[in-house]
Each structure stands twice: as C-alpha cells, then as structure tokens.
Amino acid sequence: MQLDNNLVPDNVRLIYIDDPQRTNEEYEFTGNEITTSKYTVINFLPKNLFIQFHRVAYIYFLVIAALNQLPPLAVFGRTVSLFPLLFVLTVTAIKDGYEDWRRHRSDRNENNKESLVLQSSKFQSKRWKDIRVGEVVKIRVDETIPCDMVLLATSDPSGVAYIQTMNLDGESNLKTRYARQETSLMSFEGGLTSGVIRCEQPNRNIYEFTANMELNAHKVSLSQSNIILRGCQVKNTEWVVGVVVYAGQETKAMLNSAVSPSKRSRLEQAMNKETIWLSVFLFVLCLVVAIGMCLWLMRHQMQIDTLPYYRKSYLIKGKFPGKPYKYYGIPMETFFAFLSSVIVFQIMIPISLYITMELVRLGQSYFMIEDKHMYDSSTNSRFQCRSLNINEDLGQIRYVFSDKTGTLTENKMEFRRATVFGKHYRNSSMVDGSTKDTETAEPTKPAPLPTKGRKLKSDITVDPHLMRLLHKGLDGSEKISAHEFFLTLAACNTVIPIPSQSTHQGSMGTEIHEDLEAIDYQGESPDEEALVAAACAYGYILFERTSGHIAVDVNGEKLRLDVLGLHEFDSVRKRMSVVIRFPNNDVKVLVKGADTSMLSILSEDPENDDLSLVTQRHLNEYSSEGLRTLVLAARDLKGEELEEWQSMYEDASTSLADRSSKLRQTASLVESNLRLLGATGIEDKLQEGVPETIESLRQAGIKVWVLTGDKQETAISIALSCKLLTADMHQIIVNGTSESECKMLLSEAKAKYGVKCGGFRTQSFKLKKGAESDFVEVLAESKLTNLPPEDDGNRELTMGGPLALIIDGNSLVYILERDLESELFDLATSCRVVLCCRVAPLQKAGIVDLIKSRTDDMTLAIGDGANDVSMIQMADVGVGLCGQEGRQAVMASDFAMGQFRFLKRLLLVHGHWNYQRMGYLVLYNFYRNAVFVFMLFWYILCAAFSTTSALTDWSSVFYSVIYTSVPTIVVGIMDKDLSHKTLLQYPKLYEAGHRQEGYNSYLFWIMMADTIWQSLVLFCVPRFAFKESTIDIWSMGSLWTVAVVILVNIHLAMDIQRWVLYTHISIWGSVAMTYACVVVLDSIPVFPNYGTIYELAKQPTYWFSILLIIVVALLPRFTIKAMHRIFRPSDIQIAREAEILRKRRFFYGSRVFWRSTS
Amino acid sequence: MDQKNKNSKKPSYSRFSQQELSAWKPILTPGWVIASFLTIGALFIPVGLVALSASDAVVEIVDRYDEECIPDAYSMDPESFIQNPDIKKTCVRSLRVPKKMVAPIFVYYQLENFYQNHRRFVKSRSDKQLRDPEANNDTYHCFPEARTSDGKPIVPCGLIAWSLFNDTYKLSTRGKPLTINKKGIAWKSDTEVKFGSNVYPKDFQKGGLIGGAKLDEKVPLSEQEDLIVWMRTAALPNFRKLYGKIDTDLEAHETIKAEVENNYNTYKFGGRKKLVLSTTTWIGGKNDFLGVAYITVGGLCLFMAINFILLYVFRPRRLGDPSYLSWNRLPVA
Fold it and tell me: Which secondary-structure segment (H or E) carries A504?
C-alpha cells in the first residue's frame, strides 16, 4: 500500500497491542520510569563540581587558588586562599543537593504510583515505573495518565474521552479525545486483543501525532485526537483504555520540560565591557609590580644573597649549602611577581558581583511579585518573574510590541451583531435608550425556550426580530438561511457541551426542576464559545458531541446530525467546515471563516452577489466598531460530489505523511460555491486601563507597536478605541500585494513625510555618538535639533501631526523577505505608532528582530497566546499575560502578569527602580573592590614590590564576602529614589533609563578617578601619620581594614536615598561586624597579628587617622555631588526634591506648590 | 468565602512587601551642604591645633651614627669592618638635649631602607614554635633559617629572628650613666601569650653566617623583649623600634654621651641607623602630619562653605522647581 511507503522503517515505531514482549523484542523502548533528578549519591560530588565549573567565575577562582598553592606564589595561606572558592562551591552544592533531593522524592512518588494494566488477561495494578510500551492500561476518572497512550476504548460507547491538559499547557478547559470506532467496543479482558500500531518516533510536538493502526488486516489512521498524553487527567469519563506508545523520558510531556533560553540583561552586557577595563587595570597594576620587582632585583643583584630580608640562598651551612632558596632567577622572579600580584589583586575583577546581582534580582523579584497593585483578582494571578536575569532591563525599554487580542482586549467574546440574509440584527443589550423602539419593549429576557429547561449559564439577550423570524414557521429562503445560520453556529465548531446539574439548586430555591440542566461550553477558542452560546440563546442548543455525531436541540426538537467530516480551522484557509448528514439523509457543508477567505468561495449567482454586497457593508460597519467578524455559508452536497469527497477525505485522514495538506485539498473540494448565510460580529472588549497605560508609555518615550492577526479595520478600530491612534495622526497605510508595490508605497510615504533615507550603518553610528539624540532622522533635522526629545510629533514631521504606519502581513512578507527591511525600518521608526495587521507568528518575531538588530534600543514584547511565543522569545524582554488563550505565552515569557495595564507599573515603577538600583550596585561594587585593590597596590610599592599585604589573610578574604557585601545587597533591593506615585504621575522620569543615567561609561570613569583618589588617601594618611614610628605591619593592616570598610560603607551611605531600618542595620552592622571580626582574629594566639587591635585602639592617632581618611577621601565626591545639584540637577533629583518637600510642606500644612508640568 | 480566601494568591499586605516602610529620605539641600562643611571645619581646625601643639611638645633627639661610626680606614669598605669580629666596634656619640625632656624618655633605634615588610621576610617565622615548646619542629615557613646542618630545629627560627638587631647603647650624662630600662618595652599581649615562658632558644645563631644578635639560651622567649619587639615587623621600610626607657628627666642643653656598639650590618644594603631619644604625648612621637592635615582640611571646608553660601546666593535654584526638569528646560536653551 501507499501508506507503507511513507513509513521509512527507521522512523517508525512498531507497537503490538497488549504484547510488550514482542514490542520490545527488536529494540528495547524506554521504560516508564522517569528521572528528573540530576545526581545520585555516588556521582553527586564529581558531577556537581563538573557542572559548577562550567561557570567562568569559578574557573577564575580555581586558577587563582591553584596559583596560590605554588610555593613561590604562596601569597595567602593555603586554607585561606581556598576559602572563597570552597564557600561558593559549598553553598551552591547544598542548594543543588537540596533541589535534587526534592526531585528524587517527587520522582519516587511519581514512579510508584499505580495504574491498572492488562496482565495475563486481567486488569491488575502495576507501578508506573514498570509499565512498558505495548501494554494496555486502564485509567479511571480523575486519574492521571502515566504515559502517552493511544486510546482504544472509553466508557462512552462512542469512544469519547475528556481530558484536562492543565499540567501540560496550563489550559483548564476540557479537550476531547476519541477512541477509534473499530476498537471502542472491544473487550480487553480475555486476551483477544491484537493489532499493530505504527507511529512516529518520540518528539516534543504536543499538537501533532501521526500513526496508523492495523487491526485484523484493516488499517485505520490515528491522529492527535486519538492520543492521550502523560500528565493529563481523565475527566467526565468513567474509564479509558489505551495502549502505551511512548513511555517515561520519551513522553511528550517529558520531552517538553526543557527551559526557555536565558537572556542577558543590557546592563550586564555594558558591565562586561567595563569589566574588561578592570582587567586592563589589573594587568597594568600587576605589570607595574612585576617591572618594579625586576628593577629592584637588578639593582640589588649583588646583595640579594645576604640581604636579611631577602636571603636568596642557604649560605654555607645547612642541608643545601649555597642552593638558592625560592629564587629562580630574575626573569622567573619577575614573572612570579606578576602572578602573585594577580593573586593579591584578584578581587579587582568583581566575581562576587555576579552572585550579588543574582541575590539582588531575587529580592527585587520578591517585591515585584508581592506588589498588590500587580495582582489580578479576575484571574487570581500574581505577577510572576520567570527569568531572574533581566530585571533591570525593564527600566530601559524603548519599544513595546503588543499583541492585540487578549492583551489589549480581554478576549472575552460577546456576540453582538449578526447579519442574516442581508438583514442586520443587533443584540438588544447594544441598543441604547434613544433608539429603543416598541419591539424592544417586549420582554428581552432569554426567549421562552420551549426546551425541557435546558439553560445556558450566561444569559444572552436576543434580538426579538430575529427570534420572531426563527419562529415564524414560514418557508422561504430567509427563514432557511436563518435556520442554517444558527445551525452553523451550533455545529461548525469544536466546542464540547458539558452538562452540569448542580448550579441551579441555589438559585431556584424551592422550585426545583429535575430535568433542568445547565450546559457549560468548553471550547478551544473563546470566539467559538461565544457563537455557540449565541446559538443557544436563539434556541439552537448544542448538547452532545461525539466523534461521530452531534446533537442539537432546535426549539425543543432534538436533531441528531452525523458528522461525516470536519475540516479544522487552519491559518492558511482561515475557515473551518463540517460536513453533516441530517436525519433525512440530506448532506450539508457548513462553513465559517474570515471574510477575506470566504467571500472568494461563494457561489456566483446574482442573488448571492447582492447579498454579499450588503453583507460586506455590514461587515465593514462591524469592523469599524471594533468587532471581530466571521462569515457563515453553507451548501448542499449530493451524489457524486459527496462520494468523491468521502473517498478523498477517508484517504487523507488515514494518511501518515502530509496529512494536513491532503486534508486542505479535500476541504477545498467542498468549500466552494457556497451560499452565503450571513455574518456575525463579536465584541472583543478592551481591557481595563489600556488607553491610560498606552498614553503613559508614550509619555515615557516608549513606542508602542501593535502586532495582530486581526484584519486591518478591526486593528485600526481597536487602536482608535485604546487611543493608540488619534484623529490628528496621518495614517500611512502600506497594503501591497507585490514587492514592487510595497517598495513604491514605502518610498512614497517616505518622500511625502520627509523621512530621510538613512542606511543602517550611519544610524548605528549616530546612536553611539549621542545617546540623547533620537535615532530618528528627519529632513529638517538641523532646524529641529533644539526641540525637546519628547516632542516626537514635531521631530518626526515636516508637516504637522504625528505619523502612524499601518501595514499588513502580506506586505510584510514582501518586505521582510527582501531587502526592503531598511526602508521599513526608516519609515517605521519615524512614526509614532506602528500597527501591523494580519501578521503570522513568525512575522511578529521578524518585526521585533527588525528593531533589535538595527538599534541598541531595548524591546519588550507582550502577548498572551501561542502565536506570540516567537515574538516573546525574540524580544529583549518577553511579557506573557495569563489570559484566555492558554499558557504557552506565559511559559515562554520572562515576566507574566494578569492585565495589560500592569505594564505601566512594571516599567515605570519597578523597571525604573530596578534599573537605578542595579546601575548603582554595579558601579559601587566596582568601586568597592577597586579601592581595596589600589590600596594594596600603593602599599606594595612601599614593600620592595614583594606583594606583601599588610592586611591579614582572613581580612583580605572576608572583605568582599563578609565585611562589605550585605549593605550593597540591601541597598540594591530596598533603595528607592522616587515613590511610585511620582513615577506614575510623571512618566517622563522613565527616560532616565533611556539616557542610561544609572550606568554609563562616563560614570564608570568618574568612579574610577574617585577610586584612585580614595585609595591614595587610604594609603597616604597612615603612611604619613605613622612615618618613622614604631608601627608594625599588622597594626597598619588593621587600621587599613577598618578604614576601608568604614569608608566604603559611608560612601554607600552618602548615596542611599531611602533609609529604612534594614539599611541602618546593614550599614552600621557591617562596620560593627568588621570590628568584631578584627577583634576575634586578633585574639587567636597562633596568628602573628595577635593582640594588635587592643594596643592600637589605645592610640588616639589611630582614631584620628581613620576620621581623617574618611573625610578627606569623601570630600571631593561630596563637593562634586553638591555642585552637580546646583548646576546640573537631574530630573530624578528634582522630582525627588519636589516629592519630599511637598510631603514636608503638606505636613506643615502649607500649600502644595508642585504643579503638573505636562 | 474562607475557601476563596485560601485559594487567593493575592499578596498579603505589609508595608515591607509594598516597599512602604517608613523611611528617612535625606536630600542634599543647600543647608545640609553648608552645615556639613561648617561642621567639619569647626571640628577639624581645633583638633588640628591641639594635635599640632601636642606634636610640638615632643622633644626628640635623632642621631645618625652608621656612617660616623666607621673608622676612616674602612670608610671605603664598611662591610669588612663590620664583619670582622676582632675589631672593637664601640663608637662614642654626643647628643645635645635641645629642651627639657621629661621622663619617661624613650630610646629607639631607627633603621632606614630596611624592608622588614618584604614578603619573604614577613613570612619567615613560626608563631607556633614561639609559643609552644612542643612545636619546636614547626619550622615549615622558616626556610632558609629553619634547621641546623645536622637537622635540628632552630628556636626561634626564621629570617626575622635571625636578623635580630644587635647594636647596643650606653648613655651617660655628666659622667653619670643613665640607666636604660629594657623591661616592659614589648606589648603585654606578646610577652604574656604569644611568646612562651617555657620556650628557650636552641641552636640559635650557630650557623656560618651570623645575622644579628645572639640570645641567652637560659632566658625564655617571653622575657627576650628585644626579640619580641623585633619580631613585630615594621610596616614601612623606615621604622623605629623601642630600645628602652630612661626614667630620669633630662635638662635642656645637657650633653649626653652615647657609647654605641656598632654591630649591625646595614652597610650591605645601604641602610641607615639612627639613635633616637624622644618623649611622647598623647599623640605619640613627633609628627606634625595629623595636625597640619586637620587644619588644612578644616580650613578647606570652611572655604568651601563660604563658596557654597555665595553660590546659593548668586545662583539659587528652588528645590524641586519643575522648570529645571529636562523636558521643561530644553526649549529655553
């Protein structure tokens, strides 16, 4: 058979039903035991170390520690030098070990669960880990499915099973799966089952499954709807029986458990550049020491043999007379001096900063998650930080790419309008008071349904005209159209009706109708649910659906319709159709789809043309109101045509390869020559606070682009209603159908609005040249450069009014695939708003990439559906909304939240804070380590370049780990320059992030200059205060330890904007802690520094030196800071002053003077 | 309702989690700036003056003798002089007391260009051995002065002990000897804990090259105060070490005769030796640095305070004035 040709033996897995021996004979398939744990007791240590040493930082630690073990380089004691590395390794290992222990535990729980497996012709309990491929498993209601199985039978005679895929994709609605009719009535107990399943090799695609089954020499096809996956739960079905096809690690759930790729924050990238500079500093310092050593040795070459403090050789006596002692010749000594200074200066490269940043981000995430303003009560979801690497990027976003449906809008669909047979009907809830006519005065309660009390949970008010039309009982094309219209609504979908009885007990009080049942619709898309609900309201109640038939209650009359075939919705056809057989053997095709794809396949008789014109007019009206439209059509299928379709459909749906394209062909056979029934308009409500959010983002200098799959008119209307587009905007519409047309449209628009043609290179050059100047280039740039940057409108234009670019997916195909990209980029970046309609998921990513690859600006993508995943992963920051369309977007995102409007708070408040905190944290950490290293460096110059450290080994190690680490973390998490009220009120403050005010190379170099000054003060003050005195090296070291710790803490204290209790504790606690450590270290008699601090603290000179160091070191910084405040106050500073003074004034009862500036 | 609350993921409100803890939010107002400068100025100048006067009150006699104590015959080759054990090394210096010196007067030796802070030197010691008689063999860090040629451990081992300073001073005035009290020159913590009272020198300075002073093998290390002082290695290459104390006052213009036993070899590395007699005040020895620095910084701060006052008068900026915001300011410019 042809089918077999498609099954290349390598790519097929053969499963003999209920015959695991034979199944596993040739090739042992993976068992069902899962291990998500990484380690075992034996391999934990080596494997964990191996994994840990994948980080560069640890390698650096290791190399330094290893260098220190070499005798000529032993700068620190052996244990001391290993301390930092061991500390980090141990902490990480404990963390990893604990996590792995938990994984082991959950694995064990999972593996020891039990299911009923057909063993010696009886269903007997078996542990999950022992289940093998080929075995037949029975699962009862509410049980979890142990492995991927092909359904063979269910408790439902028609073979339907309902499963919940919550664990897999987070969608809580029920999905239907079908057992093939051929197997659904089989009895398994008795051992008579036999059959072979051929299926594809395990893969991670949870939405596709291709296989066939051979039963008694009869082949049947299997698809996605016949398989149930591990982790899902069986619902509403008493039991299901299936045969295991993939087990254990090969199940789709396990294959999908990979994490999304991690992102690096922009700040961290910039920081890495500065880290290279620090390495240069480190290199230079080490070089100076090495050269100094070399010169010193050359100068003292004749003496070093006997120099009391050098003593090259063992002289005459001893075991090794005349042999040099730790001396390897000048070149080697120079080299060793270099290496040992690397050891001493190692913390110049702030390795601890990476750990600090991780901790700080963790703390920041805590505050973002806990923010009650970002809690969405409707979905009961908190803000989620799924990625811990990019908190600070939120403060620098320049572009927001937003999905429309479910993101700007609620994605709660409501059926609003219908046009049936050219007549327009509206739901009466839409009729406002003034237009109410006499008819609407009639009771608009849910129509008196003559059904046996079936009732939909949500009430939809119906249009009485339409209702009357349906009940008129007249024959005639209008009535038939209306009938078929609602039949299509009820039948042409994949919605599952779920009866639920319990809901009415309360509301009905004493009057309980036993046969009253409510129907809950579970659909894969909210549009469908809305349509079915609408049909229900008009008396077409879908109440049963199996794979073979559907049952609709038409005004009390039960109608059983056989479903001969179902062509599901796909993005190429943009429509779906069902072929149904009526009880009287009539066969009809019912189709619904997007207008563009439907209008072309209507039959071409004149009546239909008129109808189609009227309907189109209605459609345009609906679109302009922001409604989503669908066109419905039908046709009869008779005789030959039916047979042709049937055979083709059979063939296509059992085919293993290319099934979808074959099905598409089959669909095109019947989806033609259709009779137009009408169209629907569904309202997609805007989410709360969307216009305000967009306005704030715009004020903050963030460009909002909307990328939607909807059609142009809908997109524009939504954009208008959320104030993205305003009436004064010039709309440039690019709607080309060929490459040349697109090119022409683009260049025309550019010429008309005077957008200068800037190549990519010049632009990026410009960007680097001036952070302040916008990248937009406009012809009249020279005249307009003095304009404030926020006045985008004026800058962008030569002729009044801001620009808006509206472009559709078709044109994007031509533009993105050809070299028109740069043209689009030029045009798009000079527009205030860009609206892309009808875009495919990959195009969304393409547009994000367009901006990302051509500018240095940060991009953020926000969306809620599976179609936004690629865009979310592409953007610098991906935000997922926990919406109606499942959780794929959330799974792929870096941050997830419940509502679009939280974006404002996320960016303007938390983004701003995170960025300011992190920027300062990085600079401060650079400073903190560098000032210490420089201090050591100056001293080494005074110690014959011999890399002596006056500080005790332990103090050197503790400096960055214990003495100074806590305050930076606390400040990095808790400091706050402005209150959230101010930040939300003045979105322009966000531009500080765009201007990179928190961290830039200018600040870095200023900071380095300050560092060198401070380190010189640190070194010189004791150097001169104790000149020609009896001070010993440990006293000096002790003085320096304390002085540097106090200095860096006061330095930090000077920059703290918000002192809370924790800040006080951490700062002053650190100083106290340092003293405590110094006292402890000086109380251990085996250390040469024993007793130092006790003697030292008695000397007033010691205390006066410390005071002098701190004042002199910080004097320039303080002065410059004060000057800066007079001459160049930053926006943040002014806002802060205003905020605090206002509060004080308010406190003292005087007038508020801060007026709105916008 | 309870059930609902339990399932709700709504963050529980606390001032901590909402980042609304009451806080002190300082801003750098002109008042703060001026007040800080004035405070520092007002604080530092008096302290500086006091420190300076304290340093001024110290009377100090410094006499460099390493060059003068070489006989002319050896002036070209001082090393052969110093290394020859047969030549008498005594050398007489006379010191003039400039001002009355009140007891206690401290006698120091000052070495210059001697890198006691060199890493090879600093590390060459065994603190365990100094403290614990059982740990005689702990000489790992002491090379090359760890063991004698027959493998016995040297106590105290290491380069530091080996190079112990061995010049001696005898002072007299008007023919009467001035007693130099050598007790109590080391830190108490060192004599009591760090250097063992039951650890005795062994095989010390017995090798071919003598680095410096020898130690009396009958005196425990805890009482060898010269060694203890020496082993507190100096932080800087020019340093003083306490030699002893004189407990009698010295009158102004008195002449002191100092008999110096010039034994210590600093000639091979160009080091200098000085004998120092000094009184102390609370600030320690004679050192004007702190006083001068405090006065300078204090003066500078007062100067800055005046400047800032002028700046704020002539270039005032109302705090929180929105017209300075970047988006309000640029069009004007």
Answer: helix A504-508
Q: What is the CA radius of gyration of chain B?
A: 31
Four-residue CA torsion sign, A390, A394, A400, A406: positive
pLDDT in tens, B165-219: 989 999 998 888 989 999 889 998 888 888 888 888 888 887 767 788 888 888 9
User: What gap in Å lies between CA B327 and CA A795, rounded to an integer?
Assistant: 14
Give me the count of residues in chain B.
Answer: 333
- Nearest C-alpha neighbor of A1117 from the set A1051, A1065, A1066: A1051
Compute the distance between CA of residue A1130 and CA of residue A1150 in angstroms, rounded to an integer.
26
**H or E stretch including A1101?**
helix A1100-1127
- The better pLDDT of the pair B257, B1 is held by B257
pLDDT tens string B101-125 = 998 999 999 999 999 999 888 888 8
**Do residues A400 and A996 lie in contact, with contact meaning Cβ atoms separated by under 8 Å?**
no
| pTM of the predicted model as reported, rounded to 2 decimal places | 0.79
Residue type, A892: A
Write phi, then psi, for A332 (nearest 5 degrees): -70, -40
Q: Is A658 a catalytic residue?
A: no
Q: How many angstroms separate the CA atoms of A972 and A986, rounded?
A: 23
Stretch among A41-55, A80-94, A427-441, A1101-1115 having the lowest mean pLDDT: A427-441
How many whole angstroms separate alpha carbon A1144 and alpha carbon A1138?
10
- Amino acid at the residue A189: E
Using CA atoms, how far apart are residues A176 and A240, in angstroms rounded to an integer? 12
Cα atoms in the 13 Å half-sphere on the side-chain side of A309: 26
Q: Which residue of A has its CA nearest to B142?
A: A325
Residue A338 predicted with pLDDT over 80: yes
Q: Residue A377: closest CA among chain B residues belongs to which residue?
A: B10
Give the integer Cα–Cα distance in Å for B153 and A329.
28
Name residue, tokens 């939120």. A394
Structure tokens at A796: 């962008």
Report which of A289, A337, A342 is spatially closest to residue A940, judged by C-alpha positions.
Answer: A289
Give, in order, the Cα–Cα distances in Å from A692 to each of A688, A697, A721, A1113.
9, 9, 11, 48
Give phi and psi for B269, each to the nearest 5.
Answer: -120, 15
Q: How far apart are CA A1125 and CA A539, in angstroms?
A: 73
| Beta-carbon separation of A372 and B241 below 8 A | no
Nearest by CB to residue B320, choosing from A310, A1086, A1154, is A1154
Strand order in the sheet with B176-178: B90-96, B255-261, B168-173, B176-178
The whole-angstrom separation of Cα A680 and Cα A593 is 10
Interface test mutation site (partner B, options A996, A1032, A1062, max chain B beta carbons within 10 A):
A1032
- Cα–Cα distance, A514 to A833 (Å, whole number): 57
A989 DSSP 8-state letter: G
Amino acid present at A989 = L
- What six digits make up the tokens of A97? 């070990």
- For residue A1023, which residues of chain B lie inside 8 Å, CB to CB? 236
How far from chain centre, in Å, is Cα A759?
32
Q: Whole-angstrom Cα distance, residue A663 to residue A668?
A: 9
- Cα A862 from Cα A842, distance rounded (Å): 15
Cα distance between residue A52 and residue A38, in whole Å: 13
Residue B147 and residue B307 in contact, taking contact as beta carbons nearer than 8 Å: no
All residues of chain B having their beta carbon less than 8 Å from the beta carbon of residue A974 are 19
Q: How many CB atoms lie within 10 A of CB A492?
A: 28
Residue B3: CB partners within 8 Å, gap ≥ 6?
A: none
For residue A220, give the nearest of A183, A191, A193 by alpha carbon.
Answer: A183
d(CA A775, CA A761): 12
Under 8 Å CB-to-CB from A1039, ≥6 apart: which residues? Answer: A1022, A1096, A1102, A1105, A1106
